[in-house]
Design goal:
The protein has about 140 residues and is mainly alpha-helical. Helices cover about 55% and strands about 10% of the residues. Strands 1-2 form a two-stranded antiparallel ribbon.
Length: about 140
């Protein structure tokens, strides 16, 4: 597509080839290749020869650049953590007591996992558990 624009710009332009191509080159996917080819050839050849050489050099590179710009990467798979149990918070429950009940230890990593999965229900402070809250307990 950029190659066709270069051809049209050269045909219409009365100025030297460099000035005519500058407008089109800004939008071309292989901008650097087109610029280098124009600089090398424009010094010695008339406009038609420049266009054909630029087209021959830029077309394969432009196709490769377009193909490289759109890599086919599969979308990441987002998996929800598996739920071990549901816990209804009772009066006096703390993150440590809940962790002790379901995991048999009070490791901070365990109650942090419970907090992270229930962050929207609990709020910004993991110690502010209210009786009646239903918490998801993730598998260890």
């Amino acid at each position: 597509m950029a190659v066709k624009k270069v051809k049209r710009a050269v045909k219409k332009a009365k100025k030297p080839i460099k000035k005519a191509v500058k407008k089109v080159v800004k939008k071309a996917p292989a901008k650097k290749v087109v610029k280098k080819a124009v600089k090398k050839v424009a010094k010695k050849a008339p406009a038609k020869k420049v266009v054909t050489k630029v087209v021959k050099k830029a077309a394969p590179v432009a196709k490769a650049a377009t193909a490289a710009a759109k890599p086919l990467v599969p979308a990441p798979v987002i998996t929800q953590p598996r739920i071990k149990a549901w816990h209804v918070v009772a009066a006096g429950d703390t993150p440590s007591t809940i962790t002790q009940k379901y995991y048999g230890s009070t490791e901070p990593a365990k109650w942090t996992a419970i907090y992270e999965i229930n962050k929207t229900a609990i709020g910004p402070d993991p110690n502010q558990l209210r009786p009646g809250m239903v918490l998801r307990i993730p598998e260890a």
